[in-house]
């Protein structure tokens, strides 16, 4: 097991606020009716207090929003909290960069992906074990998702690199196939836990791809958008939502086989989407959107010109949104 305590790299003291931006966290307990904010966040280490300018990803591995893990500091640091983000402890530093996280079906168990490697946690993100590298993995795996305890897929960012998949909870990763004719890829999501082999990938220029066999093969799906880059995708079977730049939203009701354009009502770049049973959520540059009708219509619940939201996690009425604030 890797020793992932407080960052020991001397460069960590240089991870300070860049320009006029500082990391931020929002919390709601009433489905976005009200938000409590934490700006210019200070992260504690044994040697020094320091700031990071943004948070890129947030995840909750056990369904309790008190326990969160974030990727911050230009994708180079992992931090943990046990009080909704009121206080963060540094966990691990990597100069190579982290990209995405995914919870498995087991509470407390999740995965992290990035440069050449995947890591697994079994204690809510407080310690991580690196997966073996059986071959020359691509430089960056930009997305990862699990639909069960065992089945997971990682997708590369660059066209021409192969996907990888696991059927044993990440002990062994196997090579899938390249997503042919692809643009740069950005995110992957399983459609459902049954049969646990179907997933959708989105990427640049409105590209959408679908697999039914854990990424052994891929089918390009006709997209209603080809002039905007897609950023994130999420599913509650059979409904799926993809979001992208310039207010782009597309929706499926047939497990990703066909997609239609949804009017977002905004032109902001939309960075992430999260589907809960009662509400669907989208965050992006300066705006948070909510839908109470499975993504057919969307309402702005927060609009702030100096806030840039990158990711979120919700459990029923509770939610945490992360990103950065221009100060």
Structural write-up:
The protein has a six-stranded antiparallel sheet with strand order 2-1-28-27-26-25, with no helix packed on it. Strands 5-6-7-8 form a four-stranded antiparallel sheet, with no helix packed on it. A four-stranded antiparallel sheet has the order 9-10-11-12, with no helix packed on it. The chain is mainly β and 327 residues long. The protein is built from no helices and 28 strands.
Topology:
Elements: E1 21-28, E2 36-39, E3 42-44, E4 49-51, E5 55-59, E6 68-72, E7 77-81, E8 89-93, E9 98-103, E10 110-114, E11 118-121, E12 129-130, E13 141-146, E14 152-156, E15 162-166, E16 174-178, E17 185-190, E18 199-203, E19 208-211, E20 219-220, E21 230-236, E22 239-244, E23 249-252, E24 260-261, E25 270-275, E26 280-291, E27 299-315, E28 318-326
Antiparallel strand pairs: 1-2, 1-28, 3-4, 5-6, 6-7, 7-8, 9-10, 10-11, 11-12, 13-14, 14-15, 15-16, 17-18, 18-19, 19-20, 21-22, 22-23, 23-24, 25-26, 26-27, 27-28
